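From the methods appendix. Each design record in this collection lists the tokenized structure first, followed by the designed amino acid sequence. Records were kept in a plain field format so they could be parsed without special tools. The example shown here is representative of the layout used throughout.

RECORD:
FOLD TOKENS (379 positions):
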């Protein structure tokens, strides 16, 4: 009798195949790993203004752009699990929508729990949850429609966002709690453009070299256009409070200005494309630890905040002092710990623990629909 495939392959080879087999796209994992490390840097480092003339300031590229890269990759991931180039048929699409809704609920709850630790960062998970819910409306659309929609949203929603930020609800006594609950630091009316763009390139066939090259060219072009326009027009923080146009015409990180949306959205597409192209070479083995982080981004992101909370309580007696925590230079210890831990977990255990929980919960809550034409077993 032949041995079962898992027995023949052995535990470690199957873990290796999970991370490096054809079912995974190494470049997407690498981009997700870079997004996670970028968010760690944005949280844990003192970051000044970016200047091309000062290489020491280049770390400022992570500010805002890492979270936008994370959101764009959410769209890519959703596109891949809902059919890739071809949207799922209606029955399977309904299952996918319901599972996305379950995942959104779990992410929202986890986000609130992380906020409750008091760690002084804007936790992205509540916004991520809302984006997952909105994605349920988009997964039936083809690539061209999604990319046109992303472009339209990127051009229009920054103008709407300025008006939304002035609504009386944000002056109400409980408005800070509402802001945390909906992740308003990453406002979904604008950020749905990034998710739509990621979903669109997944539908376009993100595994194809020609698509990757066009992504790189288009993303780089958008970034140059937007940041060049900011430099040529002298847009800056001082103009944001002066007029409606000033609040829209800005590329400042986390401004949701039209130049930030176009520039950082283009930057995200270019980074994803570059990671995909790089991972077509032997470099994919050099960056395996980063790919391991990208294979379990939810676990890595959550681990960072939990380690932060525990360390801050031990050292300072409370979690809310951002300056004190940054001053102990925690970036490298936490980052190296997460990279080493994720690599060991991926090679020895497999799927990230939180990724496994979310996937398992969504599949248990929403069972798969049998393919069309099949009959249930006789009872």
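DESIGN:
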């Amino acid at each position: 009798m032949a041995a079962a495939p898992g027995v023949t392959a052995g535990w470690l080879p199957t873990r290796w195949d999970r991370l490096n087999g054809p079912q995974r796209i190494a470049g997407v994992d690498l981009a997700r790993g870079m997004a996670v490390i970028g968010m760690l840097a944005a949280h844990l480092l003192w970051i000044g203004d970016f200047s091309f003339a000062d290489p020491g300031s280049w770390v400022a590229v992570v500010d805002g752009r890492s979270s936008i890269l994370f959101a764009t990759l959410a769209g890519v991931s959703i596109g891949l699990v809902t059919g890739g180039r071809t949207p799922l048929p209606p029955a399977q699409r309904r299952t996918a929508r319901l599972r996305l809704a379950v995942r959104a609920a779990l992410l929202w709850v986890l986000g609130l729990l992380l906020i409750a630790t008091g760690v002084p960062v804007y936790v992205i998970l509540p916004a991520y949850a809302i984006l997952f819910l909105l994605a349920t409306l988009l997964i039936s659309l083809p690539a061209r429609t999604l990319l046109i929609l992303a472009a339209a949203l990127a051009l229009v929603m920054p103008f709407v966002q300025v008006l939304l930020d002035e609504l009386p609800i944000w002056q109400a006594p409980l408005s800070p709690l509402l802001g945390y609950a909906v992740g308003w630091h990453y406002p979904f009316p604008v950020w749905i453009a990034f998710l739509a763009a990621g979903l669109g390139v997944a539908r376009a066939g993100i595994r194809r070299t020609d698509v990757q090259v066009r992504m790189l060219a288009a993303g780089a072009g958008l970034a140059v256009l937007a940041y060049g326009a900011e430099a040529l027009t002298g847009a800056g923080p001082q103009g944001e409070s002066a007029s409606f146009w000033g609040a829209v015409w800005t590329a400042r990180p986390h401004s949701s200005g039209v130049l930030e949306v176009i520039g950082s959205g283009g930057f995200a597409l270019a980074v994803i494309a570059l990671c995909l192209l790089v991972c077509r070479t032997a470099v994919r083995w050099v960056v395996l630890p980063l790919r391991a982080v990208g294979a379990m981004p939810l676990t890595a992101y959550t681990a960072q905040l939990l380690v932060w909370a525990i360390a801050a309580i031990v050292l300072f007696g409370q979690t809310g002092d951002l300056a004190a925590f940054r001053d102990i230079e925690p970036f490298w210890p936490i980052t190296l710990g997460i990279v080493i831990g994720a690599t060991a977990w991926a090679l020895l255990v497999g799927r990230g623990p939180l990724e496994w929980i979310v996937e398992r919960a969504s599949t248990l809550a929403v069972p798969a629909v049998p393919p069309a034409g099949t009959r249930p077993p006789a009872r």
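APPENDIX NOTE: Residues 90-116 form the longest helix (27 residues).
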